[in-house]
Specification:
This protein is mainly β and about 475 residues long. Helix content is about 0%, strand content about 60%.
Length: about 475
């Protein structure tokens, strides 16, 4: 019998996004976006329609794009034609529809490094498919006026909630659980979201916690319609973004493939650290054990904490036996959990950099992973940054196999496939760094997409970084799309 192939679908991919064209010069309060769409069908051209909905539910658009197999197209809200009618400012969400399956990534930028310098901010997140929208969403980390002394930055969260129903208003309740005084649970019922539209909840002005000068904790969203959720963690000169978790993302064993303590990157001239926020699935108390493996010296460090319903593992301060740490962690719990990993730098002459990724479960692994955006020596005039990317592939099975990547460069239409690399339980990570990959040695500039093919189930994260010496938070991370 033949292996069945995936069928084209017209189910839209939902991307909650804040889109503000022409940010106010000299400030870090405004954010602009661009999003990249990849056609994941290997043989059929995608006819993509992007419909925009503002926060009142009003529809504008669509913007249409034709995308060849495995390749990508960019719709940039900063540029002419990136928004219907090219308004000076815009805030809302977009719905992508196609005759083929899609993968997408949204990039958020705060201005230009030449204007903002160390005040520049950026991060990315993967578009949320309709299948991944849910009526219950978990947010492992929410912040209000939280100061990070290592970064010299004060963080606040902004929650974007998109109703993925095309016809029914969503009725949403937001529940917040503060882990710092005033410790307790706060509820905001009665949030209404028009079809396909989105609302924004700013933790600085959120009414249910108005009596709390600071908030460090978790949140849940309950809705009568499936919703897609994105959380922005904002600070002066730094931004991280993550997508909300659903019940399907929880497990009793999860993996964070890249963690750091006192790791100096000579190219970026910054020292990196990391921290993990764990949240239990049903708000229960759980014993969570972190088993670290330090690739630098082979050390294994085991630490157990109680999540009630959350716990923080901060490698910068928890790993007291390790002067430096570069490795991974396996988190095991007495009840299903989700977790968020933040990678951050100490404050330096170039400012602060940070990005975020979600911990992985074994069921998330597949043999094919789509990467909507790859970069090498790509000078983006909108941000003033020359960008490169690197991909970390993580084995999510107990078997050994091989992994390779095929690049699709939109700059010159080149298609280039790397040699296969071994991956195994004893060596579960493979990296493809587009800045240095010899497969791309003949390509001076790369702006395109990629497809990772593996003989065993894997997942991937994509890190974007600015060239050496670039000021500000020119560091991004998004998850590859498994199919």
């Amino acid at each position: 019998t033949s292996t069945p192939t995936k069928q084209p679908t017209t189910t839209p991919t939902k991307i909650p996004t804040r889109a503000a064209l022409s940010p106010r010069a000299g400030t870090v309060s405004s954010i602009s976006t661009s999003f990249v769409v990849q056609n994941t069908n290997p043989s059929t051209t995608a006819n993509v329609s992007a419909s925009f909905y503002d926060t009142t539910g009003a529809l504008t658009g669509p913007i249409n794009a034709t995308i060849p197999p495995n390749r990508s197209a960019t719709i940039d809200q900063r540029a002419s034609g990136g928004l219907p009618g090219s308004p000076s400012t815009y805030q809302g969400a977009v719905v992508l529809s196609s005759n083929t399956q899609l993968a997408s990534v949204a990039n958020e930028y705060s201005g230009n490094v030449n204007t903002l310098g160390t005040g520049f901010r950026a991060d990315s997140y993967t578009g949320i498919s309709s299948a991944d929208a849910a009526t219950s969403v978990l947010m492992p980390q929410l912040l209000k006026n939280v100061f990070d002394s290592g970064q010299n930055a004060t963080y606040n969260s902004l929650i974007a909630i998109q109703n993925t129903s095309a016809s029914a208003t969503a009725h949403v309740t937001l529940t917040l659980n503060n882990q710092t005084p005033p410790i307790g649970t706060f509820t905001h019922p009665g949030i209404q979201i028009p079809p396909n539209s989105s609302v924004l909840v700013d933790m600085q002005t959120e009414s249910s916690i108005s009596g709390a000068s600071t908030f460090y904790g978790t949140g849940t969203i309950a809705s009568d319609q499936p919703v897609a959720v994105v959380v922005n963690q904002n600070a002066g000169g730094v931004l991280t973004v993550y997508t909300g978790f659903t019940n399907a993302n929880a497990a009793t064993t999860i993996y964070a493939p890249q963690l750091l303590k006192n790791v100096y990157d000579s190219q970026q001239q910054l020292t990196w650290g990391s921290g993990i926020m764990v949240m239990t699935l049903n708000g229960s108390t759980a014993s969570v054990t972190a088993t670290y493996v330090n690739q630098q010296n082979g050390h294994t460090i085991v630490q157990t904490k109680t999540a009630n319903p959350a716990a923080t593992f901060d490698q910068r301060y928890d790993l007291t036996t390790e002067t430096s740490f570069y490795g991974s962690v396996t988190l095991t719990s007495s009840t299903p959990i989700v977790a968020l990993a933040n990678m951050v730098t100490a404050y330096g002459a170039n400012g602060v950099r940070a990005s975020t990724y979600r911990a992985l479960t074994t069921v998330q692994g597949t043999n094919t992973v789509f990467i909507p955006q790859i970069l090498k020596n790509y000078a983006d005039s909108g941000t003033g940054v020359t960008w490169g990317t690197g991909i970390a592939v993580r084995l999510l099975s107990g078997s050994s196999g091989t992994v390779q990547i095929t690049y699709y460069n939109n700059q010159d239409n080149a298609v280039l496939t790397s040699p296969a690399q071994a991956i195994s339980p004893s060596s579960p990570m493979v990296t493809f760094d587009q800045r240095f990959d010899t497969t791309l040695s003949g390509e001076s500039v790369v702006y395109g997409s990629a497809v990772i093919s593996s003989t065993v189930p894997v997942a991937a994260t994509v890190n974007g970084v600015g060239a050496a010496g670039t000021p500000g938070d020119c560091a991004t991370t998004y998850a590859g799309v498994n199919q």
